Each structure stands twice: as C-alpha cells, then as structure tokens.
Amino acid sequence: MNPSDLIDKGKYPQVHKFLGERVDMLFDDMRAMLKHPLPENNCKGGCNFALFNFMVDVVSGISITLYDPKELEAYLQGKGNKDFDHFKDLLNDFYPWREEGVQDPKGIIDIIWDTRNSLTHRIGLVFPGEKQVKIRKCRLSDNDIRELEDISRFNKYDNLRTFDPKENCINLIRFYRGTYKMLKRLFTDSCYMKRAEEFLENANKPRQSSNIGNSIWTAPGAVTHTSSDDFSVKLF
C-alpha cells in the first residue's frame, strides 16, 4: 500500500497527484531498507540509522507540504522563515499515541527529533549528561511489509511501542506502521486536506521569481524517480 492509496482522489486530486509523484517513491526506498540486512548478498548493514533519518525527513517534509503548507508558500514568496518545524506538531496531533497508552507524547517526540539531529549533525556523538538512544529494527520480508502496512485491522505490530523508556530505544517497525496510521488520519481530516489541496493548486501556477537566501525559486522543485538507478531533481 502506498500513501497515495490513503487519500480520496476524487476530493483531493492535487494531493493525490503529489503523493503519487513525490511521496510513494520515498516509501519504496523505506521498504528496501526494511528488508536489510541481506547477508546473502554481502549486505550486512541493517540500515537502522539511514532508515530512521530518512523517515523523520519524510515526515518533516509532509508536515510542511500537507499538514501546514502556509509557511512554505510564504517562504517561496520570500516572506517567510525557512526554519519551518511542524514535524513535532504533526506527530502530536495525528500519530496514534493513545494506541500505545501514551497520553502526553511531547517527551517522546523531542527524543525522536533530537536523535535525528544528533545523527545528522554530529554522527550520534553523545555528550556528558546525555543518554544514548538505541534505534531498533529487524529484517522484514515482502509479506511482513504488506502486513505492516495493513492498517485496516489490529495485528501483531500494534503490540510494539514506538519508544521504550526502559531501554531508551526507538522501534522503527512500529514507527513505520504508526506513520501510515498518522497519514491516514491526516488525509481524512477535511480541514487540513482542503488547505493542502489549495496550496498545491497554487504551487503549480506560474509565479514571479523570489530571491531566497542564495537561491532563486520559481516553483517548488520537481522530483522524479522511476527506479533505484534513476533519480533526478529539477529545481526550475
């Protein structure tokens, strides 16, 4: 199941197109990483850190395009702040925390975001007074991944927890499933989707160039990806 399968195409054609052209392919890459390690192909790495960082980046991107796109629109017009951090708000509002018995998820969300920043900016270096956060996953088969993405019913993956405070551990399998549930909830919220639909309609219209930092933007960048060996980014 792809994220574009979770949206009502009739009601939100622009959102559906955006998901189909730019987000589904990212989940293809996540599925590939969920299948690691592959020792039979001499691929011993589990992709734990790469998958975690990539998942957070994708969720962050969705938070500024489909959850709260107004700042992105203002930024592209040279009027907004490019430090748009809606990642935490999206997780707080739509991630299925209550299924895990979590009433106040802000602490866990901070840990996820801080762990991402630590990996991105200092390769996970832990300073005095900080705790090492573990990132856990296991190798999944194609059938496992299909079951993981089946959010129509309760299954064994719902027994997992996104964050285990006793082990100070983030579970990527549950985080992946929780992200699918989060997207489903977001995509069925008419208020957010109407706003996202309007933003994407306007984003596809010709606009005057705006100087933003050292770059000149005319429209949001277009990304195409047809296979693991074919990836391109077009900014103009």
3D structure, described in words:
This protein is mainly α and 236 residues long. The protein has one domain. Helices cover 47% and strands 11% of the residues. The protein is built from 8 helices and 7 strands, in the order H-H-H-H-H-E-H-E-E-H-H-E-E-E-E. A hairpin with a 2-residue loop joins strand 6 and strand 7. The longest helix has 22 residues. The C terminus is likely disordered.
Notable features of this structure?
236 residues, mainly alpha, three-stranded mixed beta sheet, 8 helices, 47% helix, 11% strand, disordered C terminus
Can you give the mean pLDDT? 87
For the largest beta-sheet, the strand count, sense and barrel status come to: 3 strands, mixed
Strand content: 5-15%
State the end-to-end distance.
31 Å
- Structure summary, number of beta strands: 7
Q: Total helix count?
A: 8
* Count of all domains: 1
Sequence-ordered SSE layout with sheet pairings:
Blueprint: H1 13-34, H2 48-67, H3 70-76, H4 87-94, H5 106-122, E1 134-136, H6 142-149, E2 163-164, E3 169-171, H7 172-187, H8 190-203, E4 210-212, E5 215-217, E6 222-227, E7 230-234
Parallel strand pairs: 1-3
Antiparallel strand pairs: 2-3, 4-5, 6-7
Helix pairs in contact: 1-2, 1-8, 2-4, 2-5, 2-7, 4-5
Summary?
The chain is mainly α and 236 residues long. It has helices at 13-34, 48-67, 70-76, 87-94, 106-122, 142-149, 172-187, 190-203; strands at residues 134-136, 163-164, 169-171, 210-212, 215-217, 222-227, 230-234. Helix 1 runs antiparallel to helix 2.
